[in-house]
Structures are given as C-alpha cells and as structure tokens.
Design a protein that fits this description.
Elements lengths: L1 H6 L4 H21 L1 H7 L5 H23 L4 H23 L1 E3 L2 E6 L5 E3 H19 L7 H19 L4 H17 L4 H24 L6 H13 L4 H16 L23 H34 L4 H24 L18 H22 L13
Antiparallel strand pairs: 1-2, 2-3
Helix pairs in contact: 2-4, 2-12, 4-14, 5-6, 5-7, 6-7, 6-8, 6-13, 7-8, 7-9, 8-13, 11-12, 12-13, 13-14
C-alpha cells in the first residue's frame, strides 16, 4: 500500500473518493444487469460486471496518465480538441446512431460507440478556463473578453441541445458559474441567460411548426408534464424508483437483493441510485451523496490555493460539472426533478462517459499535484508556455 501511495500523486482524498465510487459502481452494475444478462447473454450475470470492470480499469489508467501530465499542457491539447469536437457534434446530428429518438453517439469499430458530447463538455471547460485566465486584465470588456468566451459556449450547447437537452443545460450552467467566478460582468452574464432563453423559445416554435426537425421537444414537454401530473412512461420509471427507495428503508435489502431492478427501466444507468438505496438503504445513499460532496469540497480547496489561474478555473469547472450532473441524476431518482436521462458519474454503466469522467478527475489531480510540488507558487497562467 505504501509503495502504491508513493506512485500516485495529487490529492489522496480524491483518489479514495474515486475508489469508493468504483466499488459502488461494480456492485450496483452487477446487481442491476441481471435482466440484461438473461435477455442478451443467456443468463451469464458475470458478463456485464466483467465488461464494466474492464471499462473502470481502463478509466483508472486514463486517470493515472492524465494526472502525470502538467495541467498547463492541457491548455494547448484541448484548445485544438475544441475545434475537433464541434465538427464531431455536427457529424453526430447527421449520421449518429439513433438512441431514444436522438442521435447522440457515433458508431465505432467492434460494436463500440462514442458520445461526442462527452468530448465537447471537457474541451469547452478547458477553453473557458484558458480564456478566462488570458483575459483577466480586460475581463469586463464585452468585445475583448465576453464575446470570445460566449460564442463557443453557445455553439457547443446549441449543437448538443437537439439530442440531449439536459446535457446542454448542465454545460450552459457550468459555463455561467465559471464566468461568474472569472469576474465576467454580471450584465454580460444575464445577457447570456437571456440569449439562451430566446434560443429555447425559437427552437420550441420551430419544433411545433416542423415536428420532424426536433422530435425531442415533445419528449421534453411530456417529461415535465409527467413530473407535475401522474401518468406516462416517465412517471412509471419514477414510481418504480420510489418503490425501490421505500423498500430500501434505512439499512437496505443488502447487495444483490434488489427486486425493482426487474421492473425499473435502465436500473444500471439513469436510475442506478434507486437501486443503491434499495440495496444499501438511506445510509448507502447518503454515503454516495457525501462522496460527491467531498469531491467538490476538495476541488474548492485546490482552487483556493491557485486563485484565478488556469488550474483554478479548470478544477472548479470540471468538478462542478461532474457533481452537478450527479445531483441531477439523484434528484430524478428521488422524484425531485423531471426525468432527464443523465447518468451518475463514475457509477452508472457506460463507456466513453466513464473514460471522460476519469480524464476529468485526472486533470483535477494534476492540478493538485502541482500544488504539492510548488505549494507557494501562485503564478498566473502564461499562454506562451502552456
């Protein structure tokens, strides 16, 4: 153990949080994929757990490699990646695989898929961290600072929106938080909110006039209506999640004893938190929430040691995005929010989502590693060397 701790750098508590989340993930995925195993794998219940274990293992490898890289180098890498992500988002809208009436993923060899929004989220946060750092001297200026920051945000969110409203909303909110922390003028931030609302209204009216253009709009409306009033498929999912939570009680039914996994749609992804509460009880659910809160707290602590430089904006942007997504997923499971289709970061079964989450956490660890090496260094980000 001592040898292992010497090999890894960065915030040790964040490493522990990720390990605990991975353990929850393995147990919950194994328990919730029984129906899939009997439907597609001839009853081989270990198949999905082993596959998920390999995905997590590769995720740890990506995290380890990312945390070894000096965080300032990510600025140049992802500056280029943003201009790759935008064409990929466009490509996904036209030739992506249709999942739940939306084109969200690109097909890859060997039956794999690539969710382009995962790449776009991380690259946009990187871009914003870089721009907020470079433009601090003129951050209140509309033309010199606000426009170069906001235009890529609107483009990326607009391209994600037709297929995945909730992901676009999370990214848009994260961008607003970053701009607020980066001291962008409040009147400019509110103008951006106004632009976002106007774009939504335009899309809504266009979708009503041309239903085939944006078929997801009716899904968004039905989910909100199902949240407000009983009835519909989305309400069925929430009702099953409520039953799972009620059966879990304080201490849960213990690992592998979930009953609602057989009735709950997507118990291994969108509603995995309900399965965790059913099997581990309210205590288990609180532990998961606590782990995400620790992740955010440690990120804030890192930010306080690197005020207003590239590492600070990068850390808070990535951490807020992950924890905000987790809170939305858990809020849906306990019926505090309408159904969104958001997964629980690092716990839900997945491929590219887990890998990009791993890279994101590796980047946070990279920033914390540099603080450990240079605890008194608070230099501003220098674009010429980043």
């Amino acid at each position: 153990m001592h040898f292992l701790l010497n090999k890894i750098k960065g915030d040790k508590i964040i490493w522990l949080v990720v390990i605990f989340l991975s353990v929850f993930s393995l147990l919950a995925v194994y328990s919730s994929t029984g129906t899939l195993a009997y439907k597609y794998q001839g009853g081989n219940t270990e198949y999905y757990m082993f596959k998920h274990f390999i995905i997590l293992l590769f995720g740890f490898f990506l995290m380890y490699m990312a945390h070894l890289v000096k965080y300032s180098y990510f600025s140049r890498i992802f500056q280029i990646a943003l201009w790759v992500a935008i064409p990929l988002l466009l490509l996904t809208l036209f030739v992506g695989l249709n999942l739940n009436e939306a084109k969200r993923v690109l097909p890859l060899p060997f039956g794999l898929t690539f969710q382009t929004s995962d790449l776009a989220k991380l690259t946009l946060i990187m871009y914003m961290a870089r721009m907020l750092t470079k433009r601090q001297d003129v951050i209140k200026d509309f033309k010199s600072a606000f426009l170069p920051i906001v235009i890529p945000v609107l483009i990326v969110c607009f391209l994600i929106l037709p297929a995945n409203f909730s992901t676009a909303a999370i990214l848009f909110t994260t961008s607003l938080v970053l701009m607020f922390i980066g001291r962008v003028s409040l009147k400019h931030i509110f103008s951006m909110i106004g632009i976002g609302v106007v774009i939504l209204f335009i899309l809504f009216f266009v979708a009503k006039s041309y239903p085939n253009l944006l078929p997801r709009v009716d899904t968004w409306i039905s989910r909100v209506e199902s949240f407000r009033e009983p009835g519909g498929e989305d309400n069925y999912q929430v009702e099953q999640a409520k039953i799972a939570i009620a059966k879990g009680g304080i201490f849960g039914k213990m690992p592998g004893n979930s009953e609602q996994r057989n009735f709950l749609p997507h118990p291994y992804s969108d509603f995995i938190f309900a399965i965790i509460i059913e099997e581990y009880g309210l205590i288990g659910g609180m532990v998961v929430v606590f782990l995400y809160m620790i992740l955010l707290f440690r990120a804030v602590k890192i930010v306080t040691k690197t005020p207003r430089n590239f590492g600070a904006f990068l850390t808070i942007g990535v951490a807020f995005s992950l924890v905000f997504q987790a809170m939305i997923n858990m809020g849906v499971a306990v019926n505090l929010l309408p159904v969104t289709g958001q997964t629980l970061p690092f716990i839900s079964m997945g491929g590219t989502s887990i890998w990009f989450t791993s890279i994101s956490i590796g980047i946070i660890l990279s920033v914390s590693k540099e603080i450990e090496i240079n605890p008194d260094e608070n230099e501003e980000f220098q674009p010429a060397t980043a």
